[in-house]
Amino acid sequence: MVKILGGSLVLIAAYLFGMKLMEPAAEHIRLLEEGDLLYRILESEIRNTRTPLPILFGELSDRTNTRWHNFF
Length: 72
Description:
Helix content: over 70%
Shape: rod-shaped
Structural class: mainly alpha
Number of helices: 3
InterPro entries: Spore_III_AB (IPR014198)
Order of helices and strands: HHH
Number of strands: 0
Pfam families: Spore_III_AB
Organism: Anaerobutyricum hallii
Distance between the termini: 59 Å
Protein name: Stage III sporulation protein SpoAB
Radius of gyration: 21 Å
Largest sheet: none
């Protein structure tokens, strides 16, 4: 019984440690996915509406509150 409990604790600790190590990478992936989305929106708006770029960049900047806000 003690071996099962000890093994379970080791597995839980390893899982939690892995989740802690994964957090920065997951945030980086979310940031890249949002950048890709904003790029596709930019491409679509340029192609379809012929909106002037300064106005378009302002609109894209208003749509996001991540690091991409400063890019646009």
